[in-house]
User: Which sequence fits this backbone?
């Protein structure tokens, strides 16, 4: 099980501070976090498909997570929590930056959504377990990936579903996601540190050590005329679903 002592080896304080500075602009689709607004529908489409496949819910249903609990780790200002709530889940969002949590709470309240937001390290919080655990674009920001994933796994209820997304560590991602993206302002300078990216094979190996099997893995790619979309091309970003090995 994870414990409070792992908090000093997961989310780096400077990473939390960096994203806290962006909190006030998080919900502006044309602001500094515009890239997240553009990728969010793609990630949510994957999550919805994974939910239906894992829980056997009807793909045409509007509340497939009704009666289920969901946790988003590294929730930022709630871009994933709010759609999960609308899909019927009782949602908890956790973020290391209290400014993000405050922004998330205010936005959810304004939208009439009942979402529990908590500031802190997931390892140190007594919040129980959840049917669905998501952590999107977070693992690349942690100091000890093995410890972080252990803490994430500890939050998953028996029979639960885990969804993770992160940039791949490739030559292309170094040029495009770090160099070019920051140079043109697509993401704020300092968002990404390429050496901290993790390949799909490395992530799957860490998950296997924790007793998980990956059930689906897709790339998130971009091309002219189509924009960001789920793809077999994992050279820049990828997203996966996993469950405890049966």
Assistant:
């Amino acid at each position: 099980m994870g414990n409070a002592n792992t908090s000093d080896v997961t989310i780096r304080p400077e990473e939390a501070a960096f994203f806290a500075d962006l909190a006030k602009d998080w919900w502006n689709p044309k602001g500094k976090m515009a890239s997240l607004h553009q990728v969010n529908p793609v990630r949510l489409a994957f999550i919805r498909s994974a939910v239906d496949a894992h829980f056997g819910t009807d793909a045409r249903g509007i509340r497939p997570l009704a009666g289920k609990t969901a946790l988003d780790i590294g929730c930022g200002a709630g871009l994933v929590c709010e759609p999960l709530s609308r899909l019927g889940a009782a949602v908890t969002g956790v973020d290391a930056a209290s400014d993000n949590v405050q922004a998330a709470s205010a936005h959810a309240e304004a939208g009439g959504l009942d979402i529990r937001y908590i500031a802190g390290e997931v390892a140190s919080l007594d919040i129980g377990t959840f049917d669905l655990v998501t952590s999107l674009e977070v693992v690349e920001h942690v100091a000890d990936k093995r410890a972080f994933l252990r803490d994430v796994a500890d939050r998953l209820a028996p029979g639960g579903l885990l969804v993770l997304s992160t940039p791949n560590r490739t030559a292309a991602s170094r040029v495009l996601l770090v160099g070019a993206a920051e140079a043109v302002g697509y993401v704020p300078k300092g968002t990404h540190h390429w050496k901290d990216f993790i390949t799909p094979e490395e992530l799957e190996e860490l998950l296997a050590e924790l007793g998980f099997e990956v059930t689906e893995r897709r790339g998130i790619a971009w091309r002219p005329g189509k924009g960001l979309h789920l793809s077999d091309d994992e050279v820049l970003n990828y997203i996966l679903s996993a469950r405890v090995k049966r």
Notes: The chain has one domain: 4-244. The helical segments are 13-20, 34-55, 81-86, 98-110, 145-154, 171-183, 200-209. The radius of gyration is 17 Å.
